[in-house]
């Protein structure tokens, strides 16, 4: 598969999986089970926290699973928390210390992030958002490569994708720079 064809395949898959994720969340909301499913996802993730010293996660956007219940469990276990910070399209994504209630500012993609003055940290567990995943633990992100570069910069960190089961694809095209996950947690369980 040529680079252009692989990029086109990923773009088409992103559209399909975003639509599938949105329909899934709307269905959960209509059934009034969204909170239940979010808490079930957190239950499945709890054993993966282990003895992590610093757990990095993301602030969810509409239709993404909310990792906050997982972060609160990690905090209860004594782990430090971190959120990603992005300063521009070519700059690396970094992780900065954060606790619930700490001030945030809007980042370049209109996603809240820690202030520039928050201490930069290296997490040993990264809870990553995704658009799609497959059984081989390949992750399809938004397409900018921030998480792949962050994974490469922290090779010892465990990489856990957080997703709804509806986001699983038969196969995710993987490029040489794509870094696979160690596990994916959904409301149905853990895929390792």
Automatic annotation (TrEMBL):
<keyword id="KW-0067">ATP-binding</keyword>
<feature type="binding site">
    <location>
        <position position="59"/>
    </location>
    <ligand>
        <name>substrate</name>
    </ligand>
</feature>
<keyword id="KW-0436">Ligase</keyword>
<feature type="binding site">
    <location>
        <begin position="139"/>
        <end position="147"/>
    </location>
    <ligand>
        <name>ATP</name>
    </ligand>
</feature>
<comment type="similarity">
    <text>Belongs to the 5-formyltetrahydrofolate cyclo-ligase family.</text>
</comment>
<feature type="binding site">
    <location>
        <begin position="10"/>
        <end position="14"/>
    </location>
    <ligand>
        <name>ATP</name>
    </ligand>
</feature>
<dbReference type="GO" id="GO:0035999">
    <property type="term" value="P:tetrahydrofolate interconversion"/>
</dbReference>
<dbReference type="InterPro" id="IPR037171">
    <property type="entry name" value="NagB/RpiA_transferase-like"/>
</dbReference>
<dbReference type="GO" id="GO:0005524">
    <property type="term" value="F:ATP binding"/>
</dbReference>
<dbReference type="GO" id="GO:0046872">
    <property type="term" value="F:metal ion binding"/>
</dbReference>
<keyword id="KW-0479">Metal-binding</keyword>
<feature type="binding site">
    <location>
        <position position="64"/>
    </location>
    <ligand>
        <name>substrate</name>
    </ligand>
</feature>
<keyword id="KW-0547">Nucleotide-binding</keyword>
<protein>
    <recommendedName>
        <fullName>5-formyltetrahydrofolate cyclo-ligase</fullName>
        <ecNumber>6.3.3.2</ecNumber>
    </recommendedName>
</protein>
<dbReference type="GO" id="GO:0009396">
    <property type="term" value="P:folic acid-containing compound biosynthetic process"/>
</dbReference>
<dbReference type="GO" id="GO:0030272">
    <property type="term" value="F:5-formyltetrahydrofolate cyclo-ligase activity"/>
</dbReference>
<dbReference type="InterPro" id="IPR002698">
    <property type="entry name" value="FTHF_cligase"/>
</dbReference>
<keyword id="KW-0460">Magnesium</keyword>
<dbReference type="Pfam" id="PF01812">
    <property type="entry name" value="5-FTHF_cyc-lig"/>
</dbReference>
<dbReference type="InterPro" id="IPR024185">
    <property type="entry name" value="FTHF_cligase-like_sf"/>
</dbReference>
